[in-house]
Every structure is written in C-alpha cells, then in structure tokens.
Write a structure and sequence with these properties.
It is a single chain. The protein is α/β, with parallel strands linked by helices. Helix content is 41%, strand content 17%. The protein contains 17 helices and 15 strands. The chain has a 5-stranded parallel β-sheet, sandwiched between helices. Strands 11-12-13-15-14 form a 5-stranded mixed β-sheet, with helices on both faces. Strands 7-9-10 form a 3-stranded mixed β-sheet, with helices on one face. The radius of gyration is 23 Å and the shape is globular.
Length: 450
C-alpha cells in the first residue's frame, strides 16, 4: 500500500457521520484512480465508471430522475442495489459536467452509498458556469508520492518504522539520508517510482518525465480560453524547471515578452490544476498570517523529479553528500516544500515563507508553520548554526523559544541567543524529516518547554 496516508484519510471519510460525496482533485498522473481502486477493497461492492467511455457517460446524460439513474447504474454494472456497503467511483467526471451537479442528490437521497468523483481537468469545469453542489460535497487532494511512501514502496519496513519514530534512533540516519537522496533525484510521480523500483534504470526514466510533461502541454488547449493564453501556458510549462525554487515576476517570465496580467492569469490556471504552487511571502510573525500578494512569489512545481528533468540537473546528484550543493540550494528548498504538502489533503493547504524587507535589514525564512497558535520558523541551511542571521532576527520578533533547522546532519538541539539576548532552542533535523515537522515541533516543545 504505497498511498498509506491517503488511504487512512479515505477511511476517516468513509466512517464520518458527516460523509458527503468526495471529489478527489490533483494533477494528471499523480495516482488518483489508483488510490480509489485500492480503497475499494474496503467495500463489499465496487462500481467503477469512467465518463470518457460513452456507455458510462450516457448514464448521466438525459437525466430523468435520481431513482432512474440509480437503478440504471446498478443494472448496467450487475450489482445489487440493496447492498449499502457500496463504493461508487465516477472517474473523469469532467467529461459530463452535469454529473457534478448530480452529486448533491447522492448526498440528499442516497447517503447509504459512498461516492467518489475524480478528474484530471476538474478545474476547467469548476471555472465554468456549472452549479457546484456547495455544502453537499467534500474535497481531497492527491499529491505525488512522498518520501515515506517511497520507503514503503521499497519494502523496507524497518526504515519506515524509524522514519515514524519520534525521535528516530541515531543509527538510522545514514541509511535514510542516502535513500532520501535517491528519492530526491527521481521525485514522486507514481509511474516514475514504479518503473525505477522495478527496473533500477535511471536512463529509462527520462522518456516517462517527457511523456508526463507532454501530457500537461496537451492539456493546455483545455485550460486556455484563447490562442494567446495557449501560448503563455505552453511557455510557462517549458520554463518551469529553470524558474522553480526561485522568487519570480510575472512580467517577462522566462525571458518572454508576455505581460504581467497574461502570465498571472496563466499561473492561476496552473495552480487550479495543481501543476504549480505560488508561495507568497508574509511579514507576519504572529497569527493570523496574511500573505502579501503584492510581493514576488516563490514558484513551486508539482514534483521535484520533474524539476530535475526540466532543469537538466539530474547528473548533479552524483557524488554529493548534501542536497544544498544541488542547483544552488533551490532543490532541497523545493523538495522540503513538496514534503510539507505531501501530508496535506485539504484543498486550501498552502506553503508560507516569511520576509522582512526593511532598508539595510532584509531577512527571509524559508518556511513557517503554525503550531499551537505559534509561528514556527523553518530554515534549510548547511554549515554551522552561526550563519542563521535571518532566523536570529525572526526569533527576536516572536514570543516563543522554538525554531527548526533542516540540514544534512543528525538530530540535535542547540540553546542559542539572539543579538538582543533572547534564549531560544534550535532543533536541527535531517532534511528527510520535512514531512514530520509538526510531530517534531511537538517533541521540541515537550523537551524544551517555555
């Protein structure tokens, strides 16, 4: 079960007393259908429809009544209408937009059946004048395979156990670091991971990356509303690898002549399709956190393996001991962001980083995480703790004493002082634990209370 965490989320949804039809969202080829098919083993009956097939799509066209639809659905699939422990999966639902509207009736009239819908281009439907059954559906995001899921796929249960142990034993460090470097090079796209673990041939992965990127390019015509937008979207996808991990400007993005408004609209479409994330800075060091959308965002691609391929930096991974040496440190920042998001299934989940842009006093924290009403800084730094100038400035602004550094080293805790004399505790974590940050912050709070 590679998608262990996603399956756990689906099991919670299944047993919730507030269960509604679930719309699974995510980029093309991240494994949405695979996850749902695996989940279907929990049920006595599984009805799977793909609305790209005319016979399946026809069930939802020419809607007469919900009772008629249900009877036809079970009849065509040769399943018992009386079996309540049934999962109905409607894949590629965007092919019949009116089918989205019908999800409300599953909730209102047939709540006994568990219903999941999915589609790679759902965002194009959601943007159109389609009646979305607000309050009658739930959403869940599927993202690329995480490092923990990569360990599971490799079949190393001891490594998985150590990864989930808080704190992990020191003897596990070198093995997990080496495996994380392996994962960082190939990324988390399911087809890539599957091929790599079965063939162990890095060269044969390149055609898969190319096919994935080409499939996104082929989708552009479905996103774009005119020829200009088509050209802008294609240009952005071609240039993602060279810009990902950096703060970007929309105007002339990727050395183009495109205007800020055109590029901004295109990025909004790609965000809705979960191909990219735009991480806007905040100047807040206390809650609530407000992102400043007037400032330049940092660009996050869907997957670090796709970034490596697009930026042509795959060979940079050989003979390195620290991912901070790859692509001027942008890759490890990017991968940490991907790992933080990997355990977030909420559509509204986003990454945050902090900046202070005062004259002669600029500072930037790679990421911030909200925990127990505190804003916890996350820095990704190699070398000695004395190089953490921005972090020291940040700690002088907050009322708590906890900070995290991710690096290519072992778990340690330092007691440090800011320039103004404030004592705080810095938890140094190997960067492969990025998806476990919230648990380690809790651990730090317990061993070094205020």
């Amino acid at each position: 079960m590679i998608y262990r965490k996603a399956l756990e989320e689906l099991k919670k949804w299944r047993t919730s007393n507030r269960r509604k039809p679930l719309i699974v969202r995510g980029a093309r080829q991240v494994g949405k259908t695979t996850v749902v098919t695996e989940f279907s083993k929990e049920f006595k009956q599984f009805i799977s429809l793909n609305l790209e097939k005319p016979t399946d799509a026809q069930i939802f066209r020419g809607f007469r009544s919900m009772n008629y639809l249900i009877e036809e659905l079970f009849f065509r699939t040769n399943q018992s209408i009386h079996e309540q422990d049934t999962l109905i999966f409607i894949d590629e639902i965007q092919q019949v937009p009116e089918a989205i509207n019908l999800l409300r009736y599953f909730y209102e009239e047939y709540p006994q059946y568990a219903v999941i819908a999915a589609g790679s281009l759902l965002e194009t439907i959601l943007a159109e004048k389609v009646t979305i059954p607000v309050g009658r559906v739930s959403y869940m995001v599927i993202r690329p395979i995480s490092f923990e899921e990569f360990l599971i796929a490799k079949g190393n249960e001891q490594a998985v156990a150590q990864f989930n142990k808080i704190p992990q034993d020191d003897f596990a460090f070198e093995s997990l670091l080496e495996t994380f470097h392996e994962y960082a090079r190939i990324g988390g796209m399911p087809e890539v991971v599957d091929h790599y673990l079965n063939q162990s041939d890095l060269v044969q992965l390149n055609p898969i990356y190319e096919e994935i990127l080409n499939s996104y390019m082929d989708d552009v015509d479905k996103y774009a509303k005119n020829q200009t937008m088509t050209q802008v979207l294609r240009h952005i996808i071609r240039n993602l690898g060279g810009e990902a991990g950096s703060r970007i400007k929309f105007q002339n993005f990727g050395h183009s002549n495109y205007r800020s408004r055109e590029v901004g609209e295109a990025f909004l479409m790609l965000e809705k399709a979960f191909l990219v994330s735009l991480i806007y800075p905040t100047i807040s060091s206390e809650i609530p956190i407000f992102n400043d959308r007037k400032k330049s965002p940092r660009l996050q691609m869907l997957d670090t393996g796709l970034l490596n391929y697009s930026a042509k930096i795959q060979n940079d991974y050989f003979r390195i001991n620290d991912l901070s040496e790859v692509y001027k440190g942008k890759v490890i920042e990017h991968l940490v962001g991907q790992e933080i998001l990997s355990s977030k299934y909420n559509v509204m989940s986003e990454l945050n980083f902090w900046t202070r842009e005062k004259k002669d006093a600029e500072a930037e924290i790679d990421y911030i995480i909200l925990k127990n009403n505190y804003v916890i800084p996350i820095e990704i730094k190699a070398g000695a703790t004395g190089r953490l100038r921005s972090l020291l400035n940040f700690m002088d602004e907050v009322k708590h004493p906890w900070a995290i550094r991710l690096y290519a080293g072992r778990i340690t805790v330092n007691e440090l002082k800011t320039p103004k004399g404030k004592t705080f505790y810095l938890l140094n974590l190997p960067y492969y634990l990025a998806s476990k940050l919230e648990e380690y912050i809790e651990w730090l709070m317990s061993i070094r209370p205020e």
